[in-house]
Every structure is written in structure tokens, then in C-alpha cells.
Batch of 4 targets.
Target 1
Amino acid sequence: MSQVEQIPRALISVNEAARVIGVSRSFAYELVASGHLTSVRLGRRVLVPVSAIDDLITRNRVDT
């Protein structure tokens, strides 16, 4: 039996990013359009760097 090695992804779809941060697909696209969530366009696809999610959280953290 061979094991398939998982390669960490550097980019995820906007839909996947929406699920990760717990917002709707349309709101995730709004974040991309406004520049609050960094994105990369490859052809017709809009992808989000995984690191951009951490950046978004860090920038919007509320200290209580």
C-alpha cells in the first residue's frame, strides 16, 4: 500500500476561504473586491493565499 503525501496548498478558492473564516461566499467576494482579503487571479479563477486569511484575522482582531 502506498501512502499519498499531502502537499499543503498555498492558494484556496474564495468559496473555501469563506468556509474557513465563517462568512458567506458573497461576503468573501466583497472582501476580495474591497482589498480586505488579498487575492490572486489565475486566468478566470480568483484564489486566496492561505496566508491572507491569517493577515485578515490579525488586522481585524479586537482586543478586549
Note: The beta strands are 11-13, 40-42, 45-49.
Target 2
Amino acid sequence: MVLALTAPLMSLADPITLRYYWQRWDARQLRLLMPTTLAGIVVGTWVEAALPASGSVRASPRRSRIPEVSCSASI
């Protein structure tokens, strides 16, 4: 729900910021940010590929003594 509310705002923020800072960037800052940005993309892709497709992880296929608790929180 929160993502659905913030996604349009984030989509509008990038073009507005780009227009405001067009040709005002500092090449030194860009050189400092690019390696860590690319490393973050690589690590994030690697972690996402390692996660199970269903999004749930089970320790074992047998039944646990601890009951499952479902929690849904909305902010």
C-alpha cells in the first residue's frame, strides 16, 4: 500500500531534480559515487537472485511446534 502511494511521487521527483540540477553537477562527486553505486547494483542483484522465488523460507518440511503468526502492518 505504501509503495503504491509513494511510487508516483518518486517518479515525479527524478525529472524535476534532473531539470533543476542540469549541468550543475561536479565531476569529482560523480567519480566518488559511481563505484559504490555500481557495487550496490551488483550486490542487490546477487542477493535478489539468491532469494527464493516465493519469498518465504522454511527451515524444514516437517511441521513445527511453534504456530505460524501472520502479521500485517500498515503505516
Note: The chain is about 55% helix and 0% strand.
Target 3
Amino acid sequence: MQRPERIVIIGTSALVCGIVSYWSGGNQKTFAPWFSFAIIETISIFIYPLVAVAVLSNMTAVYRLIHSKHQLEKEPKPPVCHENEIPDSAPLGWLHHA
């Protein structure tokens, strides 16, 4: 998930959470009979999108790392030179052969 999407989702959910909280009269809670705690509260309008942004942002970061690793593995590796050896591709390497 890119930065603009994160800003829009977090900003929109914070705005909607504030509006709903104002019009509903405060902290509304919805309980389910099989849970001992509230499953939906007014702040949930902000928390659920925030959790989604956190998960998707981390997935994006992992994907970028994997993609970068694959790109680095595709690049040809430069030749390894020993201490007294000058590669043929070295600039002006022909001067040292004379």
C-alpha cells in the first residue's frame, strides 16, 4: 500500500469516526452473546482501517524487499581480481602489460 492510499484511508476513517461519535452521542458499543467484550465500538470505525493499513503496508515492504533481492540476483557479478592481477577490462590496463 502506497503513502497516498494510507493517508486517504486513515484520514477518512478518522473523520467518519469523529462524525459518528458526535452524532451518536459518544461511545456506542455492540455486544455479541458469544463474546464477553464489545465487538464493535465507535472507535472501531478508526481501528479496523488502521489495522488494515498496518498489515498491507508491511506486506508491501516485504514484497519490495523480495523484489529487490530478485533484481540483485539477476545482475551480472563483476569479475573478482586477485591482489596482483589487473583485469583486461580495467581502464588503461594495457599500460601495465608493457
Note: The chain has one domain: 3-74.
Target 4
Amino acid sequence: MMIIFFQGRLIKAWEINTEFNFVDFIDGAWDEGNNCNSYNDPIIEEKISMRAKNVAPSYRCPYSIEQCTNSQQKYGQYAKLLLHPYCLIASEE
């Protein structure tokens, strides 16, 4: 942050030091179709699973195994903290 005096007034302003690109941070793990949800309540889990199957019978979680594999590599040792177990065990065959 820069602090500038202009006409006797203190002005605080942000200064860009480096370029920032969201592409470096947003990936397939942000997609709940790949990094699946789980619920502690088995009744809720079953209802949501059945609803998903009714809406999209061919849907499987993870939707994109490639995205899970990329996320496993990207996050390394932190993957187990960030990715759903289904995404962790997904591998391209």
C-alpha cells in the first residue's frame, strides 16, 4: 500500500507490484462436480444422490477424472485436506 500526501491530505492507495491472474488459482477442484460434496446425515446424502441421478442419470462424481488428477498433482501433500476422497482416488485408467 502506498501512502501519499496530496494537497496536505493523506491518501492511501493500492499499488500493483505484480500481475495477478485468477487462472493461476481457480481450477477443476472448485467445481463441485469434480470435488464432490458429502453430508454427515445419511438421509440427506441419499436424497441428494437420488435427486442428482433423476436429473442427470449419467452423472458420476467426479465428473472429470482429469481435473481430479491435475488437482492431486497441483496440491501435492495438501490434496488430502482440499479434495473429496472420491477425487483423491480418481485416476485415469
Note: The beta strands are 2-6, 9-13.
